[in-house]
Amino acid sequence: MKVETAKEKRVEIRISEDDYKYLKVAAYSMGQSVSGMLRMISRASINAAKMNVQQGRIRLEDVEAIFNDKL
Q1: Cα distance between residue 39 and residue 33, in whole Å
Q2: Which DSSP symbol is given to 3?
Q3: N or C end: fewer C-beta atoms under 10 angstroms in the chain?
Q4: What's this model's pTM, rounded to 2 decimal places?
Q5: pLDDT tens-place string over residues 28-59
């Protein structure tokens, strides 16, 4: 059984009306809504970052220091 974690952060982007039309086409061609497609792309990126951390290629402490904030 899949365990969902609480979703606390919201990501907002602005794109042109024309680009949004193409984004809808891209999502439709993948069988997704725009939100679903962007969520899927985000999850893939997050999983890649997690793998880099687990393999020691990236240290979260270094990234936190760059942004002077906790991730």
Answers
A1: 10
A2: P
A3: N
A4: 0.74
A5: 999 999 999 999 999 999 999 999 999 999 99
